[in-house]
Amino acid sequence: MVLPAILFLVVFSYIPMVGVVMSFVDYNPVVGFAQSEWVGLKYFKELFTDQAFPMIMKNTLGMNLIGLAVSFPAAILFALLLNEVRVGWFKKTVQTASYLPHFVSWVIFGGIIIQMLSAGNDGIINNLLLRMGLIDRPINFMGEPSLFWGIHIASSLIKGLGWNSIMYIAAIGGINGELYEAAEIDGAGRFRKMWNITLPGISATIVIMLIFAISGILNSSMDSTLVLQNDLNYTASETIDMYVYHVGISNYRFSYATAIGLLKSVVALILLLTANYTSKKITDKGLF
Amino acid sequence: MKKVLVWMLLVTLLVLSLSGCKQKKGNTVVMPEVISGEGPSWTWDTSPVEITAYVGMEGYGYKWNTDIVSMGHLTETTGVSLKLISGNNERLNAMIATDNLPDIVVLDSVTNPIRQQLEKNDRVWDLDTLIEKYAPDMKIPESMHTWYEYEDGKLYGYPSFYGAPEDLEAYPDWVKLEYHNKLIVREDLCQRLGINVEDFSTQDGFIAALKKVREASLTVNGSVLEPVYFYTQPHPLRIAQLFGMALEDEDGNWVEVRKHEKYKEAILLINRMYRENLIPEDAWTATADLVDRKLNNGAVFCLFDRSTSGNLKALQQVDPNASFVPVNPPASQYGGEPAITAVSTAGWTWLAIPKTTQVPDRIIRMLSYLTTDEGQRLNYYGVEGVTYTMDENGRVKYTEEAEALFNSDFNAATRKYGLNYFPWVFNWSTYQRFNPLPTTVDQLADVEINEFYREYVYDARCAELVDPEAGSDLLAQQVKINSYWDQEEIKMMRASSAEEAERLYNEAIAAIDKMGLQELYDYKNNKFHENKEKFDLDYIYEGNRK
Closest chain B residue to A117 measured between Cα atoms? Predict the structure, then answer.
């Protein structure tokens, strides 16, 4: 029964891996891999010696680490809080409202954010601040590099919070109800139950999600950055993925783009193994 | 046993998929029999034929339907039905890698590197051979051939939106170089605020005029009147051209604009406008949509980089007295007249005919038809007698039925007549030669604005098309230098003082020098000279001719 799945994996995941050869040659689609010139590690060297490398590395790591520190616990907290809501219709309403932004494309969601933060006559936030007398000139939120990380992380949080909490809500649903009843008999309050039953009950899920999140630390959301980036905030918004897109793919440098992709995969693998190892040592839980 | 079977299956799959990566060789090239007949070549054989055409243009997703006027007419005239496939470069790459090319390939850009690869690897037909054999009546402008011919002296495709210098000479009253760069101001508001349009011709006068607007803080139609907008964002290049910076120096060499004194002067002028709070914050990240809205609303006093186009019509509906006039731009401290580059006329898409096609004869004859005046009008205006007739000036006049449909539902008319469905063979001079003459107030105002700077416009294609080959290391170097420069240039324009702007400028120049600007310059200058040689030009900028 497992054969179709294996075949699927082989055809769509393993065979395409041959494509990593592309990162070691000057790939030319018309002549194919075989005739393309072998250039070894040229494209890897190019990235590391690039004058923009410190900037894109800082932006990628900075935004992702802070984003992880904020949105990871936020999703858990949201799931825990939602679990404590006892009024059915309210719980469902909150859940639906929080999932909705996930289904709105970044083009629309980002457009709304940009419009709200606009420094022109139509920016609602600036208008509000001006009328409250807190500022005397509109702030160009989207044009201020020092604000970009905050805006990006906050908008990603709003968009993804509900969706990211689904796994935890599902995990909470799987906790044996008898444990709560027993705790109640023992006189445990809400917080005690949350701390001693719910959190340990979903700790395996938390660990798995954290390991995945850590391994993806070099990935950044292209959708959100493409929408929110502009010439003014470029120094704070250009990430590795965006740079590969700008310098690599949009200039037909497929080999360069593949090399960076390969490099990121290797780093992700190392991070995954390290996080898994550490987690197993500390919490005795891991992916494998 | 089962295990063995599974492994065998896996290995077979692997081998099969790997062999798929290899190219098929030895496709036979079909050369249909040469025929000839009376009349134009496309009428010699009008038997029905379906031709597959890949069109790699964004948003091009039409399907062949002979009920659509233009498509039906092409089929009726030439017998050809096109099976249109759209997609992106990845799709095309897959077709190339599997040796599965359609009969016609339209690349999204004349500079798409796939074009060179197809030519280099002998995968496409040269038009010279096909024209000679199958469609001797097809005309290709000589300059187009010279500009695009491959090393062997043959032309391997057809560019759309190519502006032929031949047309400029043949129709001097109609075909002109288009350009964007200009400076226009609201004449009615100048009078209201006591600003003299002559004031704009000096930098101090220009700044003082804009300051008057800022200080007056007028509210028009509910929005604050802003002193200046750009189309679409502040950029020193256009202002430097108004200052008189040409893309060619007096010795006929290519100019690295960033090092030009007038470019630096333009940065400093924008910086001064910024420091005086004359540039609205949203102008820095403006889109065309935003600027259009502001213009329509009357919230823009002075605009760089574009004429009013459709905006004046909308604006006058809100404010009937509103009018824009072109003004002499602020002069450079180094002197000189504006040197404005024309909109690039070197071409947009690239049509090639793969050698795998079975019907090169029918394709070239169809192209022969589409590149005639009538074929060109088919794309933009439809069918003579159905959607338009020709007036006494030799201009298109829409039929009453078409006019009515255009006025009631423009999109429905476009769909019914199939207008602009063949942009991949269209040339802008067709529009200039046949489009109805301007009649409305806003159209006439536009003509006046465009004529104002006309004498300063020059064809700069030789200087603009000097980028290193796509996919090359030198191009990557250029992209990196440009992206670094762009991020620094914004800081210069928004610096807190002129000294700070100048310091940032000097630092950035030193940095791009270090990033290998000279190597890039040498390449581009060399390419520039090669381009000029193609057209047998000593200079591209009139002011440099001694």
Answer: B282
State the sign of the Cα–Cα–Cα–Cα dihedral B220, B224, B228, B231: negative
> Measuring CA to CA, how many Å separate B62 from each of A248, B34, B138, B159, B423?
31, 32, 26, 20, 12
Residue with token string 């970009």: A148
Residues A116-143, mean pLDDT to the nearest whole number? 88
What pLDDT digit, counting tens, does each position of A223-256 carry?
999 999 988 899 999 999 998 888 877 777 888 8
The span from the first CA to the last CA of chain A, in angstroms, equals 23
The nearest CA of chain B is from the CA of A253 a distance in Å of 5
- 8 Å CB contact between B396 and B435: yes
Considering only residues 42 to 81 of chain A, which have any Cβ-Cβ distance to chain B shorter than 8 Å?
Answer: 46, 50-52
The 10 Å Cβ neighbour count of residue A40 is 10
Domain B32-171+346-434: state its class: alpha beta
Mean pLDDT, chain A, whole residue set: 89
**Alpha carbon distance B255, B525 (integer Å):** 8
Q: Is B36 helix (H, G, I), strand (E, B) or coil?
A: coil
Q: What percent of chain B has pLDDT over 70?
A: 95
CATH of domain B183-341+460-544: 3.40.190.10
ipTM: 0.80
3-state secondary structure of B260: coil
- Give yes or no for a contact between B51 and B362, defined as CB atoms under 8 angstroms apart: yes
- Which residue segments constitute the domains of chain A, with CATH numbers given? 20-105+149-283 (1.10.3720.10)
pLDDT tens by residue, B113-139 = 888 889 988 999 999 999 999 999 999
Q: Where are chain B's structural domains?
A: 32-171+346-434, 183-341+460-544
